[in-house]
Design brief:
It contains nine helices and nine strands. By secondary structure, it is of the alpha/beta class. It has one domain: Alpha-Beta Barrel (TIM Barrel), CATH 3.20.20.190. β4, α4 and β5 form a beta-alpha-beta unit. The radius of gyration is 18 Å and the shape is globular.
Length: 298
């Protein structure tokens, strides 16, 4: 089985995130998979965006100026309205821009439509598409079940079932995806940090992110919880992965693909620990290291 080298948001270290230009570049580099994020417009079109709202760090209006403050939700805009915005570069005045000094702008990029991306990027390139819903912010997106149905329909309409995986931190969507299309593999995303925690192992109640599953009923084991959710892949924040949990996941028959791994020494260490793939902002770097390790990515 090929090592699954995934270009995070299309490889935002090199090109504007979640744009057609980034996807074409990632495919040309030879990544196994393009990782990207999904949103739903007011007229129910599945488009690509990491944020549920227009992000002032990334979005310029029809007048060419950066939008200011909190932008509108994508769910409140029609596709035609959304297409008026340019997402081809990072606002140079933002702190975000300093994170990706190697990114080359591509002015004129618009929010892509998922079905258009499938048409533009043929096999063998695969896609890992993330449904972006948040149990704590239900009014910013389509409802989880409806969102998931629109995504599954778009994948099937594009005849892309065999080269798609659906991932999410909100496991309600993954459980729904398994009901609607069990032939599409799912990936359970997790994070446990001080600032962001979807597992919430110390809470009295089960985490709202876990689709009704209770970690305590699985002995505190995240891999067992992932298995119970029906996911084929566990995709933890890379700092949360230990050799012990990796071994446990593999024993359960899960693939493990941590996110988002950018430092070369961390990529090397995780490959040596036998992860099944990884998600990175710098796919050219990840591909080079995988090749040095003798791993095939296609």
């Amino acid at each position: 089985m090929a090592f699954d080298l995934q270009a995070h948001r299309g490889g935002r270290g090199l090109a504007p995130e979640n744009t057609m230009g980034a996807f074409r570049q990632a495919a040309a580099l030879g990544v196994t998979t393009i990782e990207t994020d999904l949103a739903i417009t007011k007229d129910d079109v599945v488009v690509l965006s990491h944020e549920p709202r227009l992000n002032p760090d990334l979005v310029r209006g029809p007048d060419g100026n950066w939008i200011e403050g909190v932008g509108p939700t994508i769910r409140s805009l029609t596709l035609a309205e959304l297409k008026r915005y340019d997402i081809g570069r990072i606002n140079p005045a933002s702190a975000y821009s300093r994170m990706f000094p190697k990114q080359i702008a591509i002015d004129g990029e618009r929010f892509p439509v998922l079905t258009d991306v499938y048409a533009a990027i043929p096999a063998p390139t695969r896609f890992n598409v993330e449904i972006k819903t948040d149990p704590g912010r239900p009014n910013e997106t389509a409802k989880p079940d409806y969102f998931t149905r629109l995504v599954v329909d778009a994948v099937k309409d594009s005849k892309a079932v065999e080269r798609t995986m659906i991932q999410s931190f909100d496991w309600r969507t993954l459980i729904e995806a398994r009901k609607l299309a069990p032939e599409i593999p799912t990936s359970c995303l997790t994070i446990e940090t001080q600032n962001s925690d979807t597992i919430r192992r110390n809470d009295a109640m089960a985490s709202p992110w876990l689709g009704g599953l209770d970690l305590k009923k699985y002995g505190g084991s995240v891999p067992q919880l992932v298995k119970a959710a029906g996911c084929a892949v566990w995709s933890p924040f890379w700092r949360n992965l230990s050799p012990e949990t990796l071994a446990e996941a593999h024993k359960l028959g899960l693939q493990v693909i941590p996110w988002t791994v950018n430092a070369p020494n961390d990529i090397v260490r995780l490959i040596d620990q036998k992860v099944d793939g990884l998600i990175t902002d710098y796919p050219e770097q990840g591909l080079a290291i995988a090749a040095e390790k003798g791993l095939k990515t296609r």
